[in-house]
Write a structure and sequence with these properties.
Elements (H helix, E strand, L loop, with lengths): L1 H4 L2 H5 L19 E2 L2 E2 L8 E3 L4 E4 L4 H5 L2 H5 L5 E3 L5 E3 L5 E5 L2 E2 L8 H7 L5 E7 L13 E7 L6 E11 L4 E10 L3 E25 L5 E28 L2 E25 L5 E27 L6 E25 L2 E25 L4 E23 L6 E2 L5 E20 L2 E18 L4 E19 L4 E12 L11 E4 L2 E4 L7 E14 L2 E13 L2 E9 L2 E8 L2 E14 L4 E15 L9 E15 L4 E10 L2 E3 L2 E3 L2 E11 L4 E8 L6 E7 L3 E9 L3 E11 L21
Parallel strand pairs: 7-10, 26-30
Antiparallel strand pairs: 1-2, 3-4, 4-9, 5-6, 7-8, 9-10, 11-12, 11-41, 12-13, 13-14, 13-40, 14-15, 15-16, 16-17, 17-18, 18-19, 19-20, 19-21, 21-22, 22-23, 23-24, 24-27, 25-26, 27-28, 28-31, 29-30, 31-32, 32-33, 33-34, 34-37, 35-36, 36-39, 37-38, 38-41, 39-40
Length: about 725
């Protein structure tokens, strides 16, 4: 019966990661932040805990040549669309962390850029936490994705050099190194990436007019250019004595995207008469920089697992988007030049302390305090004029908004084993002060909140191969600072945007139950998840006339989702392994408070599949494909899409490997949205430049002792190469 149940993912075409037998628990050589072990995880295979699953990605070819978004597409539960939009089981409200700390790279408007361009080869594992425990911040109704950086573990010196050349003048590469002695551990990594940028968006819409007629609009955006990304990371740990360790870490990334944009829109009335037509041409440079520094302290008391940790970090993220546009309106005839400069700066300081104390052999207590101070500044300045040298500041294009969030949180969790049953109960209390300063409009406000976030996790061992788990957590999604700005913001001649200071935070009660089977190189997982969400923050698009559409942020009434996720990994033959996963979801949206009388509901199916063929001891072939499910939205839906990737690796020696990868071989990653309301019907399509071929090499060196044979791809799991 169990085998018949897991045939369903085969029919739905899905993909999952490589799995291995649970490794023996290594000594705790790394630090723990937010309860996530960031240096002590085994490098290969799947690790499971009472509240998370951790997947190794070091042997996925998409990790070697692609972006972190490419690598995440191969993770069960995770979807990344062609525009860099990430979701976890269909929920886009996901907190992305690097080494246990939420990263400013993945907040705000730069999130999609970072996912599409940040090199994946600087990370070794991905932790997926769909129902986090109390030690984690409650932000993100979808859960948490934690990216764990590569760290050297072998004694002495070790490292690697990697380089890849691709189609259309693509290239990427990097180098990493590490040194480990009895007391000192050092590691560093630097990566660079260059990609051509090609994006095309088309949009066709029909909007009702006040007089009972309709306006028909057609819009096209074409962008061409180049993207350059440079990132670096360094860390050091030093043992003051056998029980005390101090550490320091620094990280920096810079993304520079230089593109030229061409836009064209036409609007006609019911009779076919041309109401308006315009063209815009503009160079559009984008800059995203992120720097972070962190200090840590850890002390082990007498007894296994009795530990105190202190962590202090400071992070800054800058985003700059500039356009010098030439706007030619054909009907009515006019010519205008624009200079728009949009900048944001986000500073975040965090101090966190955690205390873990075993209570006997079967129980454990965790206590913690978390202080976070976040400051966000939004500056937008625009000028217009009849010529490039005759621009004048336009008050309608000048906007300054400042947002601050100061939070104090305490948490506690108690975990106890009762025979085959393990119980973990937790509670997190957060006091938050929010400040809003709309400098341009001269308005200020402040808000104080105090909330409790309970969690519960259960695990029951049926036998050596099977277990049941269940969990509950309460999550929150606070509106982004950009969503709270009430200033009417000009995007382009056909789009304006407006936030709302009075937006409520989104609250979600999340329930999960799962069955897990694991024997040898076979792994089955079935998870049923239910989420009940209030005050969902969403986009509402409306026509304001003259071919202009307003995107506003509003609170939905309620949303419920029921998700069944199935995962099956194993070995077909001595040389062939498979990895499958699929997600079947049913969603219901009640948006009566926004004027939509009917409840929207619908089902969707998505998934991924990987097939690995170990042709010889040194040759490995991989194929993986993903189907991104259709996503229900208050005014319509996001269309389904898919991707197929191929990879080949030949190990010249144990230290040198040659790789060939082909991404999006079917040229099928075309996203799009559909809006369908009585006042507005609209179809949008997005095409990106994902299709590519890479040829590259990886050389590893150093390390004491004989190197172990390299296992199969992490996301072609089920087992290693034939022995």
């Amino acid at each position: 019966m169990a085998r018949l149940v897991f045939l369903l993912p085969l029919l739905l075409a899905a993909e999952g990661p490589a799995l291995a037998e649970p490794a023996a628990k290594p000594p705790a050589v790394g630090k723990t932040v937010e309860g996530v072990t960031v240096t002590a995880a085994p490098q290969q295979g799947l690790r499971t805990g009472i509240d998370r699953r951790s997947y190794g990605i070091t042997n996925d070819l998409q990790t070697t040549t692609g972006s972190i978004g490419d690598a995440l597409r191969n993770i069960p539960s995770v979807e990344v669309d062609v525009q860099g939009g990430l979701s976890l089981r269909g929920d886009p409200n996901v907190t992305i962390m690097i080494d246990g700390k939420p990263s400013g790279l993945f907040k705000g408007d730069g999130r999609g850029l970072a996912l599409q361009n940040l090199p994946a080869d600087q990370f070794e594992r991905v932790e997926v936490i769909t129902n986090p425990s109390a030690e984690f911040k409650p932000d993100g109704s979808g859960g948490i994705i934690n990216l764990i950086s590569k760290k050297g573990r072998r004694a002495g010196y070790s490292g690697s050099i990697r380089a890849n050349l691709g189609s259309e003048a693509r290239y990427n590469g990097g180098a990493s190194g590490a040194y480990n002695s009895g007391k000192l551990s050092l590691s560093a990594d630097v990566s660079l990436r260059h990609d051509p940028q090609k994006f095309d968006i088309t949009r066709a819409g029909v909007a009702a007019t006040a007089g009972g007629g309709h306006d028909v609009s057609a819009y096209r955006l074409a962008q061409r250019g180049q993207g350059h990304i440079l990132s670096a990371h360094a860390a050091a740990d030093y043992d003051l004595d056998p029980k005390t360790r101090i550490g320091a870490e620094a990280r920096a990334s810079r993304m520079q995207i230089d593109i030229d944009s061409f836009e064209r829109q036409t609007d006609v009335d019911d009779a076919g008469g041309l109401l308006r037509a315009y063209e815009r041409r503009a160079p559009n440079p984008l800059r995203l920089t992120n720097t972070e520094g962190a200090l840590s302290y850890r002390h082990d008391f007498a007894g296994d697992g009795h530990q105190l940790t202190l962590n202090l970090s400071r992070e800054r993220t800058d985003f700059d988007n500039r356009r010098d546009a030439r706007v030619e309106t054909l009907v009515p005839a006019s010519l205008v030049f624009e200079d728009l400069d949009y900048e944001t700066r986000r500073d975040e300081t965090e101090f966190k302390t955690d205390y873990v104390r075993p209570l006997g052999e079967a129980a454990k207590l965790k206590l913690g305090y978390d202080l976070t101070d976040e400051d966000f500044v939004w500056n937008k300045v625009g000028a217009r004029g009849p010529a490039p040298d005759a621009l004048r500041l336009d008050p309608a294009l000048v906007d300054r908004f400042r947002y601050g969030q100061l939070s104090h949180a305490v948490y506690g969790s108690y975990e106890r084993g009762l025979g085959d049953l393990t119980v973990q109960a937790g509670l997190r209390l957060e006091a938050v002060r929010l400040t809003f300063d709309q400098v341009t409009l001269g308005t200020r406000s402040r808000r104080h909140t105090f909330d409790a976030y309970p969690t519960l996790h259960l695990a029951y061992r049926l036998d050596d191969t099977q277990r049941l788990t269940a969990s509950y957590s309460r999550r929150i999604v606070r509106p982004r600072p950009e969503d709270l700005d009430p200033f009417l913001q000009y995007v382009d001649a056909s789009q304006v945007r407006q936030g709302d200071t009075h937006l409520k935070p989104q609250l979600t009660d999340s329930y999960e139950a799962a069955y897990e089977y694991r024997k040898g190189q076979t792994y089955y997982l079935a998870t049923l998840a239910y989420r009940d969400t209030r005050h969902l923050v969403t986009n509402v698009i409306s026509s304001v006339g003259d071919g202009v559409f307003l995107t506003s942020r509003r609170n939905l009434g309620q949303r419920q989702s029921l998700v069944l996720e199935l995962v099956a990994n194993g070995r077909l033959t001595t040389q062939l392994t498979y990895n499958l996963s699929s997600t079947i979801a049913y969603n219901r949206i009640d948006a009566a408070n926004l004027g939509f009388q009917d409840r929207r509901h619908g089902a969707s199916v998505g998934g991924r599949a990987t097939l690995n063929w170990q042709a010889t001891r040194r040759d490995l072939v991989q194929a993986n494909g993903s189907l991104y499910a259709r996503q229900l939205q208050p005014q319509g839906h996001q269309r389904a899409a898919g991707i197929l990737n191929l990879g080949y690796r030949h190990k010249v020696t144990d230290d040198l490997a040659i790789l060939v990868t082909a991404n999006d071989v079917l040229d099928s990653t075309h996203g799009g949205t559909v809006l369908d309301t009585p006042a507005l019907q609209q179809r949008s399509t997005f095409r990106g430049n994902v299709r590519s071929v890479f040829v590259g090499a990886v050389w590893s060196f150093g390390g004491a002792g004989k190197r172990k044979p390299e296992p199969a791809f992490e996301f072609g799991a089920g087992g290693g190469p034939p022995s």
